[in-house]
Here is the input.
Amino acid sequence: MPAAVRRPSTVVLAAVVAGLVPFLFHAWAALHGNLAQDDFVVTHRAAAAGPFDLAFLFQDYHGHLTPGGFFLAAVATAWAPLNVPLLMLPLLLMRAAATVLFWCLLVRCFGRRWAILVPFTVFTASTLLLVPTLWWAYGVQIGPVVLAAAGALHAHVRYLDGGGRWWLGAFAWTLFGLAFYEKAAVLPILLAGVTVLLGRSFRDHARYWLGHGVLLLGFVAGYLALTSSQVTAGGTPMSAGTAADLTGRMLGDTLLPGLAGGPWSGPGPGATWAPSPFAVVVALVVAALAIGTAGVRAGGRRAWRAWALLGFLFAVDVTLLALTRLREIGPAAGDDPRYLAELALPAALCGAFAFLPPHGTAPSGGQRERPIALALCVLLLASSAVGFTRLSPAMRFEHSGQYVGNVRAAVAEDPDLVFYDTFVPSDVVHEWFGTDSLASRVVGLVPGTHFDQPATRMHLLDPTGTPRRITGVQPLSRGKPGPVPDCGYPVGETPVDVPLDTPMLGRYLLKLDYYTSDGGEGLVNRTPVWFQAGLHSLYLPVDGLYDRVGVRLSGPGAPVCVARVEVGKPIAQ
Here is the structure.
């Protein structure tokens, strides 16, 4: 007789649906999104460095140490620059792996029962994770940390149950998380908290915990040695009022609605969420208090410990945000889900420990457990679908995608285009990034783009990324008239200096009108150029401090008559 095929249980099928539906929503939005802000900064540096440049991998990026993220960026950029699906694919795989590992963790801790479907759906459907990770630069930080948390916890519980080499998994996953985001430093604390919730003794595994302590201290030492502090110096003074406002926003506007699949008020400025109406915040706080009370009644001391662990992790996030962003941005930073996203997993796990005894030490809820669990999961999935569809469009960065798409199309149509480098709109890359917000660093990786090269036909990118032909310059300085009538300055192999009527400082566009009977190579301010036969205008970006323009031919040939020289800001069609 053929071997019997073991069919998955109904609860497993329900878990597949609860994990797959939010994942598909998220994957579709991620693969159809665009890059913005830090994404362009990282990919530009990745293209210049490569995946095995240690100085690039371990650079101090605004106080962050993320060699893993830089490595993924370098590999993807070397393969296909600015390819959003390619950049997002590793993050989606990590998300899928974290979902599977979290389910295995819940089964390991509480058994395969309907009740664990609720915390599992809280995790999979939480907009705290689904929405901000659509932005690649943040997803490449928080996605690996969530995967590391799920993997480390699963290996940790297996080690506590049976020993063996599962301790290696806990350390490996922790190191994996630390390679992407310094918030992974709380993983040993999370492991310790779960140990307490499981009722296990630390003495039984003293060397194991000593190893975690050494790992944590080693990371802190390396982090402090390689990065500068993120603590804001100066700015608006921090007060008890602003700290309380920040905490209230993080709790009422971000954490609680995010765990429930909201907020349903839509996006706010930038990557933030719009504050929920006061009545909604009150209802969420009341619901959270009711859930907390019910958990204490169900789990007693274990529930108190679970809520205490979650409260501690929340306090860590509040403290970090207050020290690094409160003075710079103000309490509105609390409306940004990026700073709380990693709490989706600990919140779901702590809720499970509050209500459910570990290792099946108590009977399940019987006939009532299945319909209650299914009803709650359907509500969470529906809430998440509404919240995600309202919040996700703001994280697709449509203007940025339009900008890059227009440049790609223009270069494909005319490969000879040369662009004068300018700053891109602030919603593509903000001006506080300095030179990293120049168009050459944003779309310079698009194959075929050329910036700031000498050209008789030069273009300027408008705010939509559409090329506009430069027709002249608004002169701030002009070359003095030349000595030869109807020629100006005759130029041969001997260098000729064209003096300017006003000395210039800074970056401007030089327009040089010339005539020659035969084409030839030459130099303008030591920059190689090609003088075309006939009457033409040559455009060349210039920078620095200068009061003259030097021109010469590189070899024998017909002389070039430099009729007019102007330096100023470009004028485009």
